[in-house]
Amino acid sequence: MSDRAGIMGVDILHIPVMAKEVIEFLPPVTEGIFIDATVGFGGHAKEILSEYPRVVLVGIDRDPEAVTTATENLRGFQNRAIVLHGRYDEEGIFEKAIVSANEIAGRPGKAPEVMAVLFDLGVNSYQLDEAGRGFSYMKSGSLDMRMDTSKGETASEFLQKVSFEDLKALLYANGEYKYAGKLAKEIIACRPVKTTEELSQIVEASIPKSMRRRGHPAKRVFQALRIAVNEEIVFLADAVARAFEVLATGGRLLVLSYHSGEDRIIKTSFNLLADGGCKCPKSLPCRCGAVIKGKLLTRRSLTPGKEEIDRNSRAASARFRAIEKIQPIYLKDLP
Ligand SMILES: C[S@@+](CC[C@H](N)C(=O)[O-])C[C@H]1O[C@@H](n2cnc3c(N)ncnc32)[C@H](O)[C@@H]1O
Hints:
Blueprint: H1 3-8, H2 19-25, E1 33-36, H3 43-51, E2 56-61, H4 64-73, E3 81-85, H5 93-104, E4 114-120, H6 125-129, H7 155-161, H8 164-173, H9 180-189, H10 196-206, H11 218-229, H12 236-246, E5 247-257, H13 260-275, E6 291-296, H14 306-311, E7 319-330
Parallel strand pairs: 1-2, 1-4, 2-3, 4-5
Antiparallel strand pairs: 5-7, 6-7
Helix pairs in contact: 8-9, 9-10, 12-13
Bound molecules: S-adenosylmethionine (SAM).
């Protein structure tokens, strides 16, 4: 089957990561709007719609190919599923999702009742597997890496403009502690870097064999570049806060992240919602007006079991966290 036929057909399905936990932590409701902020090919969405036969689900994805495929994959759930092209971190996207949900359910103007928002961060299997998208150091292709191929700067264009200091900082932040400077220097010296192969070769030549850690040395470099090109970290905290805002009381926010930088943002955001961020001395009553808005459903992040990792190696780095929206409590009112 050709690539195009594959993307248009139902034969592509991202195996949903920690689907059992996702279903388990969704709220105990029968109706309402669920938003899948990173619908991908609809793997989680399909499971959710089957498990909740009366909810309306709105999927969002910035990748036009994912939108086409998810729409196809969810076609069986008539009047209960719609997929929007957009970014979860774009202003007003969740409000737009609510309007769409009510329109397909034939109840325009109905008050919002968002009971769940799911984020399954990062890239989907097709983006990684498709050489032409340029995400994989294992496939040769042009160094693109844009999740939304309709706009923005490719990884190659990004590398063409980035300064040595910024590139070094980016690589360092993504775990390349020892070789960040050397890698940044070599990459800049070899510009323009147009293909995945060229970048892989530069990385291999820069890190001596004896110093390589587990896995291919280009893995972390590709990940760092992908995160920068798609601004995956910069707007995450705001997007999570906005998603929490649109939830109804009792609604739940569920997040799957795949590297420590993402998980740290989710942990910090959830902790702030659950403790109000009060900075007053512990021995005195709260005077700063801190408000508790959420209840943590996972104190520590959950990780997939060995059996799931054996079945789907891409689940290996997953971390799952969930929080429930509660009636606001002023810390000063607590006994
Ligand atoms: C891990 S995949 C989701 C897979 C999906 N849960 C499934 O089971 O099929 C992540 C998806 O999020 C999308 N994505 C990443 N950043 C996004 C953003 N800022 N806004 C919307 N979608 C985004 C990617 O294009 C990708 O399709």
